């Protein structure tokens, strides 16, 4: 179980590192977009991402 958690964290770091290394200007654009929208919309985006992530993990657990 702990190995799976560590592998998941490692995968997140790899993906984040790739995004920062390959498209740093796009990261700045994304941050500017997030700064431009209101906190309620950011909260809704965060909750939507959370729901999608939980659904994906549940699907992998049930069907994988």
Helix/strand layout:
Blueprint: H1 2-22, H2 24-36, H3 39-63
Terminal CA distance reads: 15 Å
Low-confidence spans: none
Query: Based on helices, strands and strand pairing, what is the structural class?
Result: mainly alpha
What's the total count of β strands?
0
The secondary-structure element order is HHH
Radius of gyration: 15 Å
Major sheet summary line: none
Whole-number mean pLDDT: 94
As a percent range, the share of strand residues is under 5%
Architecture overview:
This protein is mainly α and 64 residues long. The chain has 3 helices and no strands. The longest helix is centred in the last third of the chain and has 25 residues, at 39-63. It is flat and about 40 Å long.
């Amino acid at each position: 179980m702990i190995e799976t958690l560590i592998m998941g964290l490692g995968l997140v770091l790899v993906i984040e590192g790739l995004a920062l290394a390959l498209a740093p200007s796009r990261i700045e654009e994304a941050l500017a977009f997030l700064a431009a929208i209101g906190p309620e919309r950011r909260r809704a985006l965060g909750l939507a991402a959370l729901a999608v992530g939980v659904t994906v993990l549940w699907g992998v657990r049930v069907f994988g």
